[in-house]
Amino acid sequence: MKSQPTYQASENPFDDERPSKTKMKQASHELQALGEDLVSLPDSRIAPLNLSETLLAAIQEYRRTRSHEGKRRQMQFIGKLMRHTDAEPIREAVAAMKLGVARNALELHEAERWRAELIASDDALTRWMAEFPATDAQQLRSVVRSARKDASLVPEKRSGRAYRELFQLIKQAQIEAAGGEQEQDEPGDE
């Protein structure tokens, strides 16, 4: 009778150094998800990533494809091509884009909050001038007065010219203030 070969712990045939099939599939799905984020980036963000011509062509083809199944298959192809590409710069570009979108949304919400407060109370005007001293106070008061007048005439319709003008004035002041903060954060020529 033949005996079964006995394996020592180091001789185990299943003790390979390569990743399991499950881990390979998980990595493939992660790359495919990253590919979905990649195709949503604008061309101006994709260009500095130095992607291969094949991958760039696949991204363009994905954008041209209209059918659901065609997009799914093209995304799988993009995921396959990304296995041979360094994914870290792509992750950084996607993260930067998402951060920028979140920051823009936050700035818009902040501007809307200021607009509502400025229309609602005179105390908000004092707080605004303390926070944004570079703002032309006379122009701001005039626009706030007009926006209040528009709001009192038609309370449910708050999209009058002065209402929009106040929003633009707030956004501009926030942009100028943010630009000044960035200049202060950067080291000078001292």
From TrEMBL:
Coiled coil: none annotated. Residues 1-29 are annotated as: Disordered. The keyword Nucleotide-binding does not apply. Pfam families: DarP. Residues 1-11 have a biased composition (Polar residues). One of its GO terms (cellular component) is cytosol. The keyword Cytoplasm applies. It is found in: Cytoplasm. Keywords: Cytoplasm, Ribosome biogenesis, RNA-binding, rRNA-binding. InterPro entries: DarP (IPR006839), DarP_sf (IPR023153). GO terms for biological process: assembly of large subunit precursor of preribosome. GO terms for molecular function: ribosome binding; rRNA binding. CDD domains: YjgA-like (cd16331). Member of a network of 50S ribosomal subunit biogenesis factors which assembles along the 30S-50S interface, preventing incorrect 23S rRNA structures from forming. Promotes peptidyl transferase center (PTC) maturation. Belongs to the DarP family. PANTHER family: UPF0307 PROTEIN YJGA. This is Dual-action ribosomal maturation protein DarP. It comes from Roseateles toxinivorans.
